[in-house]
Amino acid sequence: MANNIFLNGICRPWNIHAGTFLALSLRVLADAKGADSLSGWREKFSQFVPQRQSMAIDPNGIAHISIHGTLFNKEAPYFVAGYGGTDYEEVLQDIAVASKEAKGIFLTVDSGGGHACGNDKVAKAISQCPKPVFAYTDGMCCSAAYAIASGASYICASADSTVGSIGTILPLMDVSGLWQSLGIKPDYITNREGTLKTAGYPPSQNEDERAALQAETQEYFELFKSHVLANRQIVNDDMRGQAFVGVEALKRGLVDEICDENTAYNKLKILTTC
Questions:
Q1: By CB count within 10 A, which of 6, 65, 76, 238 is most buried?
Q2: If you write DSSP's letter for every residue of 249-267 in order, what string do you get?
Q3: Number of structural domains in the chain
Q4: Residues 134/157, Cβ–Cβ less than 8 Å
Q5: How confident is the model at residue 199, as a pLDDT?
Q6: Pairing of strands 133-142, 104-111
Q7: DSSP β-ladder status, 62-68 and 104-111
Q8: Domain residues for 137?
């Protein structure tokens, strides 16, 4: 199962900070390969991995929604259970409830991003929410997480937070050594017209296949970029995949204010009581 999850869950387009992806892929690969030392480490310390907090509406009528850890789409049950993170579907459900029952939404964000597929629908749900939405980060608000936060009415960050990383990556993993250790030699037969059907899968990787994968990755990025630009005024040079410290993110228009969480929350509380 782990090998299938690795190929289908990891080798796909991501809107994610490079460091976050590297850490996740190493952990998943360790499990897929059966590396007892790292897998045992994960099991031993998984109890210390912070889990996403469930949505709650406080006495002031403000819904608190957490965007925490790596963001996952269809493989969420496996990944969230094993590594922590956030399921896009859970966030969508939270937004739907808060849109009806709360006066406003306070997003707390600490995420380096996640799957590109599924990201757009959550980002749209935030930007189209009929209630005021404030986003706050004092950790990471990068890539897919920033796509979601960019739809908020107001974005606040701590001075030392990490914000941005607007970009999409499609990892191409050489897992030939892993498959060889399992006694598997992959080969494929496709329809005659399906010359690009196996793009991204070993053993082949020719120029036409790379071009097809580049086009797919670019399409995901353009979707990401169009959503951000619909909500924020950011120049193209600041959307090359780089991340910014909070104070620099403010200068470049990625956030609206540098403050602490209580200040951000109180601004939303005042707005919702007017």
A1: 65
A2: HHHTTS-SEE--HHHHHHH
A3: 1
A4: no
A5: 75
A6: parallel
A7: parallel
A8: 2-273
Q: What is the CATH number for 243?
A: 3.90.226.10
**What is the per-residue pLDDT for 184?**
77
The confidence score (pLDDT) of residue 131 equals 97
- DSSP-derived 3-state class of residue 241: coil
Q: What is the pLDDT of residues 42-55, one digit of tens each?
A: 554 455 455 678 89
Enter the pTM of the model: 0.84
Q: Rounded distance, CA 239 to CA 249, Å?
A: 12
Report residue 67 as tokens. Answer: 């965007």
At residue 209, the 3 state secondary structure works out as: helix
Residue partners of 58: CB distance under 8 A and separation at least 6: 64
Q: What is the pLDDT of residue 36?
A: 47
Strands 133-142 and 86-87: unpaired
Residue ranges of the chain whose pLDDT lies below 50:
1-6, 35-39, 41, 44-45, 48, 81
| CA 153/CA 151 separation, integer angstroms | 7
Residues in Cβ contact with 179 at an 8 Å cutoff, skipping those fewer than 6 apart:
185, 186, 202
Alpha carbon distance, N-terminus to C-terminus of the chain = 53
Evaluate whether 54 touches 65 at the Cβ level (below 8 Å). Answer: no
